[in-house]
Amino acid sequence: MALRHDQGIVLRSFPLGEADRIVVMLSPNHGKVRAVAKGVRKTKSRFGGRLEPFSHVDLVLYEGRSLDIITQASVIEAFPALRSDLDRVLAASTMVEAVDAVSQEGESAHRAFLLLQRGLKALEAGPLHPDLVAAFLLKIADVVGVAPALDHCAGCGTREGVKRFSFAAGGALCERCRNPGAVTLRVGVTAYLVALAAADLSALPEPDPSFSKEAMGVTRRFVEYHLDRRLESLATADG
Ligand SMILES: [Zn+2]
User: 190, 150 in Cβ contact below 8 A?
Assistant: First the structure.
């Protein structure tokens, strides 16, 4: 039988039949991987809690006809601290949801994997930074090639008088390129977003409460528009 090694971060899992689960993970080399963990819904499963969402795991897989079967699982990093805090769990869920939405099966995903790993490490390291999720979403948008134009006009490229913002047009717009749906952002918001998009996730700038909420709102709407998908974990965090 053909065995292979793979590693990745568990995105989610769901039940299969009476006792099994399908585990969906993001592998740097193979993108989204779906594999069957047999018997995990029985109390004596040998996988225990090793295949929980967010865990970075190393797997030995038996190549099945349609789905691979997990024969061994070991944890590389479990992120226990972030799991103890609901705000951080919801932030991690949003990161995983966004990565899940943009990754494909059978396509390497090194940048998305590293970004998710950095995001989870930042969550593990300390309390939730109010801008972490926004920064993460701006970066994942960049990974998949839909980063918003922030310091220049998405229409003509000018850096002068860029005061409007359009979700459909791809970001900031100047007065000449403005379209009917473009909104006016408060002065300073796009500069705030530029700083977040450029920052290291584990060394974000000091948050400014007067910008954080608007920055998150704009980023969320932008990403949801371009992924054509609502981020459910964010809706939960708001509620
Ligand atoms: Zn323009």
Answer: yes
- Tell me the one-letter amino acid at 159: R
Q: How far apart are CA 174 and CA 71, in angstroms?
A: 56
The alpha carbon of 142 and the centre of ligand 1 are apart by a number of angstroms equal to 21
Model-level pTM greater than 0.90? yes
The CB density around residue 218, as the number of other CB atoms within 10 Å, is 23
The CA-based angle 143-206-199, given to 5 degrees, is 20
* pLDDT tens-digit map of 89-121: 999 999 999 999 999 999 999 999 999 999 999
Ligand 1 ion local residues (Cβ < 5 A): 153, 155-156, 174, 177
Backbone CA torsion sign across 158, 161, 165, 168: negative
Q: What is the pLDDT of residues 210-222, one digit of tens each?
A: 999 999 999 999 9
Query: How far, in Å, is the centroid of ligand 1 from the Cα of 184?
Result: 14
CA 190 to ligand 1 centroid distance, Å = 15
Identity of residue 230: R
